[in-house]
Amino acid sequence: MRLTRLVLEDFRSYPAAELRPDAGLTIVAGPNGSGKTNLLEAIFVAVTGRSHRAATEAELVRHGQSFARVRLDLTDRDGADSARVELIIPGPQAPVDLRKRVTVNGLARRPAAVSDTVRAVLFRPEEMLLLVGAPGERRRFMDAILAQSDRRGARDLVELGRILAQRNALLRAIRREEMSADGLSFWDEQLTEVGSRVMAARLMLVAQLDARIPPLHDAVAPPEEQGERVRLTYADTLKEAWPERPDPRDPRPTLPDAEQLGAAFRRRIVAVRQKELWNGVSLVGPQRDDLRVELAGREVATHASRGQQRTIILAMKLAETDLLGAGEAPTPVVLLDDVFSELDAERSERALGLLLERGQVLVTVADLSALPVGRRGLSIWNVGEGRLVEAPRVA
């Protein structure tokens, strides 16, 4: 499936807008603050059910309006099969009976089910800090892939958030001496069961990424950076409670199942019980884990140059694109939000070429001169003052 039409109604800065992307590369150009990112955000929200920018979903609704609508029209390569995804988002002034609603071909669906029809990869300038930023950024990278590629994983991530909210609230109440610690055993087991499944899914994902990234790294890297081994390993918080942990130096480690991880979770929770009660927060689980990235055996965050880090990040996003489109899954739409201003020309050109080999790409730019390709024949749309206009193609 590829995106043939995006229709917006009262989404962010747009009273109404329509974008008809090219099957290959589409450029959305406009000054900063003109609403370019809003278009990519609309696509990503419709596909994944969540925004990467909004604290609340009501922020996505244009000021003063009761709801926003996003519609994606899709078709396969031959035009023989088509689909329509529609998302309704209630605003602060919405009627009480209006709820968030996702439909595929007119039938109500859970947001996680949309990935059966269409998938998306979003690349933002902030992801240039993926390797040196807080661990939460790397957890979000892993979980964004799981949420689209693994229906059970998507449910477990939502459930994990609910469990942690309840368990942390209880820990805080115990610290204030408002509740007894007896009730923790139930939430311990809930965290163990769901946390073990999430961790097992992440371990599998990291193994898949680790296998794909080295050739992608060399495809993006300039000649002087090629041939250096990039390794990804999962950094868990189970410590000595998991003595069966695979050796990260093993090129083909045996991945644990959720049962083995569950036993380690239980041991670790017992070991940190007093510390959790003192801090009033859960100290064990996927919410504390990290992704470690090494280049030639050294930690990338502290030993790699800025250029090397950016090459690895590009390889990680290419690997994400490949994983989401593997097998019978729909090829993801790639959304690049003003990233070429952060990259040198050589890396930009290599990365864009590799992405276009994989499918449809939408790019936002503030300055068309930052594009690593010429404008001849390109589909370019200009944004300004809440309006979206297609520019004549340069012959």
List the helices and strands and how they pair.
Elements: E1 2-11, E2 14-19, E3 25-29, H1 36-48, E4 67-75, E5 82-90, E6 101-104, E7 107-108, E8 120-123, H2 135-149, H3 151-175, H4 184-220, E9 230-235, H5 258-271, H6 273-279, E10 290-295, E11 298-299, H7 300-303, H8 306-324, E12 333-337, H9 345-358, E13 361-365, E14 379-384, E15 387-390
Parallel strand pairs: 3-13, 3-14, 8-12, 12-13
Antiparallel strand pairs: 1-2, 1-4, 4-5, 5-6, 6-7, 9-10, 10-11, 14-15
Helix pairs in contact: 2-3, 2-4, 3-4, 3-6, 4-5, 4-8, 8-9
**Shape estimate:** globular
**Number of structural units classed as domains:** 2
In CATH, the topology of the largest domain is named Rossmann fold
SS elements, strand count? 15
- The rounded Rg comes to 22 Å
Main sheet characteristics: 6 strands, antiparallel
- As laid out across the biggest beta sheet, the strand order is 2-1-4-5-6-7
Report the structural category.
alpha/beta
Looking at this protein, list some descriptive labels.
2 domains; Rossmann fold; single chain; 395 residues; Glutathione S-transferase Yfyf (Class Pi), Chain A, domain 2; 37% helix; 15 strands; 6-stranded mixed sheet; alpha/beta; 21% strand; globular
